[in-house]
Amino acid sequence: MMGDENTPLDSTTAPHLLRRTCFGAPAEDVQKLLNKTPNTPYTRGQAADLLLNFKPGTFKPTGRYIENVQTSWIKYMLKIKSRLKSATQSPLQEKLVLFWHDHFATSDAKVENPSLMAFQNQTLRKLCMGDLKVLVKTIGKDPAMIEFLDTVRNFKDQPNENYARELQELFTLGVFDANGQANYEQADIVQIARCFSGWSYNNRPPKAVFHDYDHDFEGDFPDRGPKAVYLGAHGFGVTGYDLTQNGEGAPEIDTVIDAIFQHQDSDSKNTVARRIARRLFEYFADGGFGDAIVWPSDVVQAVDEVVAASGFGEPNWSIHDLVRAILVHDRFYDTAPPVSGPSSKKSVKWPVDYAVSTLRLLGVTLTGQSAYIAGGSYDAIVDHLANMGQELLEPPSVFGWDWETSWINSATLLARANFARDITSSRGNGKTHFHPEKLVNLGLTDPAAIVDAVAGVLGVQDDLSSTEKQDLQNYLTDDGPIDLHDYDFRNRKLNGLFALVLQSPAFQLH
User: In the predicted model, what is the mean pLDDT of residues 252-276?
Assistant: First the structure.
């Protein structure tokens, strides 16, 4: 596939764009993208601008316990309107918040303060598509992060290197550049840790607090040498970057970020720009970038193209511009062919994406204070997600979640199947009741047409193989004639057909 931002969307690429940037691709939204004006679709660039043209909201999840905060966030994801229906809202904002939550992985399992976790979640929402350097500086002073990565325990007499290490390894540079060259050394960790000493936080309101009496000043510890970073063989040469050039004390942690963001790799490319571009490419496009230390040439090419197209790097750190460049790039749309096709780069839906997109596509809402599904096991949504391997605000480590095939094992696949069972058997009141009759024409009698209709609602009509479709048709007809007007038949077979498609391999991918 060859194209650019002026390439028109079509019936394959339009739903692909919505699935990757929103939660599901409802048929009505697909049709809006295909009909900007009658019979004239949006181009890639026009659609990207539409989806990205939102003012970041300031929602903050609430709750006394972490389960309440998790539930509050999930309810917000379900409530937020499609950008194609609202001039101000966009599910893309929440997709970005999820990405940054994983990138700056912070867990309440250690923080043990739901209000601080909620505050960090709000911060990510406000800054999710703004200036990356501002975002990284803000996260360094975020109370939940200060607690999680031990900045609060980084004292002048007992330095703690935890945040200094993860700042470089995970949040900005990465351990190695595209050619496998080291981006920093242990000595850089030591000096950056000194700059982050003396910081603590208040709970109400959440705010970082600097204590100069517990800060490591050069004059107090001359044996530790000057506060400077060299950042590897391709960093700042023999003189290094002076981390006190803007003054010692509180300014140092921002000076550290300024230094890191100026780092160039062994190709004389901005290291942070390349790495963040790659991470966002992997998130929005596909998981086929590989884990090799030396980047494959096709990855280098795609990353460098979107960095150049967006101008991402010193001094322009617009996340908005970088994401736009990704959403119009060929590599993003190369993942659009049917997922059963041999050329497709498959990407496994995150559990929260699987759950939220399903609820949105089927028009089912959660009920009760615990936000449970009124069917099957009657489990709360946070319990369903935990069984699938994702507890929001409690990632398994500072590395965040393992993506792609790591989401899929015997236990988590069973959890997804149970979720599909529960939602299609929900018999609550109003929208807590699953109503397939509102999604499928009850006058249909041809099993192939019914299977296509259900697959179309769920956006996988082109992804199911002919064998899978035939098996689903056989399921509809294995105990008598089809009559969707008959409640018992519909309750048994149409609901069951939705469950089977939700459990299919095709629906686990996007």
Answer: 97
Please state the domain extents for the chain.
351-508
Q: What is the pLDDT of residues 302-349, one digit of tens each?
A: 999 999 999 999 999 999 999 999 999 999 998 887 765 555 667 899
Q: Which residues contact residue 304 at a Cβ distance below 8 angstroms, ignoring those fewer than 6 apart?
A: 269, 274
Give the CA distances from residue 279 to residues 5, 207, 275, in Å, rounded to whole numbers and listed in that order: 21, 29, 6
**CA 21 vs CA 28, 43, 294, 333, 371: distances in Å:** 16, 16, 29, 12, 25
Q: Identify the pLDDT of residue 55.
A: 86
Longest distance between any two alpha carbons in the chain, whole Å: 88
Share of the chain above pLDDT 90, in %: 89
User: Residue 475: is it exposed, middle or buried by C-beta count within 10 angstroms (0-12/13-18/19+)?
Assistant: middle
Of the candidates 401, 467, 311, 356, which has an alpha carbon nearest to the alpha carbon of residue 73? 356
The answer to pTM > 0.90 is yes
Question: Which residues are CB-neighbours of 78 under 8 A, at least 6 positions away?
Answer: 356, 359, 360, 365, 366
Which residues contact residue 330 at a Cβ distance below 8 angstroms, ignoring those fewer than 6 apart? Answer: 1, 2, 3
> What angle (nearest 5°) sits at the alpha carbon of residue 376, between those of residues 372 and 381?
25
> By 3-state DSSP, what share of the chain in percent is helix, strand and coil, each rounded to 5?
50, 5, 45
The pLDDT value recorded for residue 505 is 93
Question: What is the pLDDT, as a whole number, of residue 75?
Answer: 97
In this structure, what are the phi and psi dihedrals at residue 266, rounded to the nearest 5 degrees?
-70, -5
User: Which pLDDT score, from 0 to 100, does residue 338 have?
Assistant: 74
- Going by C-beta distance under 8 Å and a sequence separation of 6 or more, which residues neighbour residue 473? 447, 448, 451
Backbone dihedral region for residue 404 (phi beyond 0: left; psi -120 to 50: alpha; all else: beta) = left
Strands 228-229 vs 241-242: parallel, antiparallel or unpaired: antiparallel
How distant is the alpha carbon of residue 499 from its chain centre? Answer: 26
* CA dihedral for 16, 19, 20, 21, sign (positive or negative): positive
| pLDDT value of position 287 | 67
Residue 152 has pLDDT above 90, yes or no: yes
